[in-house]
C-alpha cells in the first residue's frame, strides 16, 4: 500500500456522502413526517463539508491505485457535490412533508456518490461498480412521483440503462482479457501489445455504457422521455450530475489506458461528439415543452464536452478545457432548471409569455442561463467552449471545432424561441406563481455563471496538471 491508502481523510468527500446516506436512511425510519427535512439538511451539510475537504486533499491514489486523486477528481468532486447541493435545495419545497421525503434525499446522495466514484476510478472493476451505483438510484428517482409520466420515464431509463450496462460489462471483460489486468496503469502498458481488434471491441462496448450515463449518442434515447416525465429537480439532477462523472471517466480512459494503443479511438469519439451535438440541436428546434427542450440541449452539450476527450493526451488544453466546461455547464444548466422549478405551472414555452413584465429578475436569470448554454460572453460556458475549440484545433481536429461552431450558432434558434415570448410577449390573464427558494437559486446560478466566466483565468490555472499515471508492465505488476 502507498501513503494514500493509509490516509482515509483523502477519501473524506466520498465517505461523508456515503455515511450521510446511510444515516439519513435510518433517521427517515424514525423521524415524523414533519421533520423529514432533517435528512435533507444532513445531506446538505455532507455536500458542503465534502466540497471544503476536496479543495485540501493531496494528490495520489487509494485502494491500491484503483482510485485516483488528481485535478480531474478534485474538480469533479467540487462540481458534483455543488450540483447535488443545489438539487437538494431545489427539492425542499416540493418535497416538504412528503411521505417519502427522506428516501428522495438518500437516493440523490447515492447517485451522486456513484458519479464521484466514476470520476476517480482508474480500475475497470471499480468503474463497473460506480456505474451501477450511479444508475440504480437514478432509475428510482426518475419514477419517484409514481404517476404515469414518471413510471414511463423510469421504465425507459431502466431498460436502456440495463441494456447498455450489460454491454459495458462485456466491454470490461474483453479489455480485461486483452490486457490481462483491470488497473489502468497496467493496461496502459499492456493494451498496446494486445490484438487491436480485441481492444477495439472492448472500447466500443465500454464507451456505450459511459455515453449512456453522459446522455450522448448512441446512449441518448432515454434522455428526452426521462427528463420530461420526471419532476423538475430530478430532471436537473439527471442532466447534470451523472454526466460529470461519466465524462471524467471517459477522459481518464482516453488519457491513460488507451493513449498508446493503435486503435483509432479519437476518430470514433470525434464522430460520436459530432453526432451528439448535431442530433441534440436538430431535435430541439421545434420542441415546445421546456423540460424536453432542455433534454435535447443536454444531448448537444455532450457533443461539445466530448471534444477535449477526443484530444486527451494530444493537446495541452484538453484537461483544463474539459474540467472548466463541466463546471460552467453544471452551473448554467442548473440555473435554467431552477427557473423551471420556480414556475411549476409553466410547462411549455407559451406558458412563459409575459415573464419579463411580471418577474423581470427571473426572466433575466433565464436569459443569462439560456444564452450561457449557447456560449455567449461573458458567461462561463463561453470560455469553456473556447477552450474546447482551441484544444480540438491543437489536437488536429479542426473539422470538429468548425462543426461545433456551426452547431453553436444553430442552437441559438431554439433558445431564442423560449426567450422571445418571455421578454416581448404579454400574458393574457393571472399572475405567474413562483417558488421563492427556486427563484433565489436561479438568481444565484445565473450570477455565478457570469462570475465564473469573468474569473476564468485564475480558475483555468488551477485545473492544469498531469493526469495519466506512468504505464506499468504486466510482469512487474505481478
Characteristic key phrases:
two-stranded antiparallel sheet, 21 helices, single chain, 478 residues, disordered N terminus, mainly alpha
Task: Tell me what the structure shows.
This protein is mainly alpha-helical and 478 residues long. The protein has a domain at 267-468. Helix content is 72%, strand content 1%. The chain contains 21 helices and 2 strands. The chain has helices spanning 12-28, 37-54, 71-95, 101-120, 124-142, 148-179, 184-190, 196-214, 223-229, 232-238, 241-255, 265-284, 290-310, 318-342, 355-358, 360-374, 380-394, 398-424, 436-454, 456-462, 474-477, and strands at 60-62, 67-69. A two-stranded antiparallel sheet has the order 1-2. α6 (148-179) packs across α7 (184-190), α12 packs parallel to α18 (398-424) and α17 (380-394) crosses α19. It is globular and about 65 Å long.
Topology:
Blueprint: H1 12-28, H2 37-54, E1 60-62, E2 67-69, H3 71-95, H4 101-120, H5 124-142, H6 148-179, H7 184-190, H8 196-214, H9 223-229, H10 232-238, H11 241-255, H12 265-284, H13 290-310, H14 318-342, H15 355-358, H16 360-374, H17 380-394, H18 398-424, H19 436-454, H20 456-462, H21 474-477
Antiparallel strand pairs: 1-2
Helix pairs in contact: 1-2, 1-4, 2-3, 2-4, 3-4, 3-10, 3-11, 3-14, 4-5, 4-11, 5-6, 6-7, 6-8, 6-9, 8-11, 9-10, 9-13, 10-14, 11-13, 11-14, 12-13, 12-18, 13-14, 13-17, 13-18, 14-16, 14-17, 14-19, 16-18, 16-19, 17-18, 17-19
Amino acid at each position: 500500500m502507498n501513503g494514500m491508502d493509509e490516509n482515509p481523510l483523502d477519501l473524506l468527500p466520498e465517505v461523508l456522502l456515503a455515511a450521510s446516506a446511510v444515516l439519513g436512511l435510518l433517521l427517515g425510519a424514525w423521524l415524523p413526517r414533519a421533520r423529514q427535512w432533517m435528512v435533507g439538511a444532513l445531506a446538505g451539510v455532507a455536500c458542503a463539508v465534502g466540497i471544503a475537504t476536496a479543495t485540501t486533499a493531496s494528490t495520489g491514489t487509494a485502494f491500491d491505485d484503483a482510485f485516483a486523486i488528481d485535478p480531474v477528481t478534485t474538480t469533479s468532486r467540487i462540481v458534483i457535490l455543488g450540483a447535488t447541493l443545489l438539487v437538494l435545495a431545489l427539492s425542499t419545497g416540493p418535497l416538504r412533508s412528503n411521505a417519502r421525503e427522506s428516501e428522495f434525499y438518500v437516493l440523490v446522495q447515492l447517485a451522486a456518490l456513484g458519479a464521484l466514484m466514476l470520476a476517480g476510478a482508474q480500475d475497470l472493476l471499480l468503474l463497473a461498480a460506480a456505474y451501477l451505483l450511479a444508475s440504480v438510484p437514478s432509475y428510482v428517482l426518475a419514477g419517484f412521483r409514481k404517476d404515469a409520466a414518471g413510471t414511463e420515464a423510469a421504465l425507459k431509463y431502466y431498460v436502456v440503462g440495463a441494456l447498455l450496462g450489460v454491454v459495458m460489462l462485456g466491454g470490461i471483460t474483453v479489455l480485461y482479457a486483452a490486457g490481462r489486468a483491470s488497473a489502468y496503469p497496467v493496461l496502459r502498458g499492456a493494451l498496446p501489445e494486445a490484438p487491436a481488434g480485441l481492444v477495439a471491441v472492448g472500447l466500443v462496448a465500454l464507451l456505450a455504457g459511459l455515453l449512456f450515463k453522459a446522455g450522448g449518442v448512441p446512449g441518448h434515447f432515454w434522455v428526452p422521455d426521462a427528463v420530461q416525465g420526471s419532476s423538475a429537480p430530478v430532471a436537473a439532477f439527471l442532466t447534470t450530475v451523472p454526466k460529470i462523472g461519466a465524462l471524467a471517466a471517459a477522459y481518464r480512459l482516453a488519457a491513460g489506458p488507451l493513449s498508446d494503443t493503435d486503435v483509432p479511438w479519437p476518430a470514433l469519439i470525434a464522430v460520436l461528439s459530432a453526432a451528439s451535438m448535431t442530433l441534440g440541436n436538430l431535435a430541439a428546434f421545434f420542441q415546445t415543452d421546456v423540460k424536453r427542450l432542455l433534454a435535447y440541449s443536454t444531448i448537444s452539450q455532450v457533443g461539445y464536452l466530448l471534444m477535449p476527450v477526443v484530444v486527451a493526451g494530444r493537446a495541452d488544453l484538453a484537461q483544463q478545457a474539459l474540467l472548466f466546461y463541466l463546471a460552467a455547464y453544471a452551473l448554467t444548466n442548473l440555473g435554467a432548471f431552477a427557473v423551471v422549478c420556480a414556475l411549476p405551472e409553466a410547462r411549455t414555452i407559451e406558458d412563459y409569455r409575459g415573464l419579463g413584465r411580471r418577474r423581470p429578475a427571473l426572466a433575466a436569470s433565464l436569459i443569462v442561463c439560456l444564452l450561457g448554454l449557447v456560449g455567449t460572453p461573458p458567461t462561463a460556458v463561453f470560455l469553456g467552449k473556447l477552450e474546447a475549440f482551441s484544444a480540438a484545433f491543437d489536437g488536429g481536429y479542426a473539422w470538429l471545432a468548425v462543426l461545433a461552431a456551426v452547431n453553436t450558432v444553430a442552437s441559438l434558434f431554439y433558445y431564442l424561441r423560449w426567450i422571445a415570448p418571455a421578454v416581448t410577449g404579454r400574458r393574457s390573464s393571472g399572475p405567474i406563481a413562483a417558488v421563492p427558494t427556486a427563484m433565489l437559486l436561479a438568481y444565484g446560478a445565473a450570477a455565478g455563471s457570469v462570475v465564473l466566466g469573468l474569473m476564468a483565468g485564475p480558475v483555468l490555472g488551477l485545473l492544469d496538471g498531469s493526469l495519466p499515471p506512468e504505464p506499468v508492465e504486466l510482469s512487474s505488476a505481478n
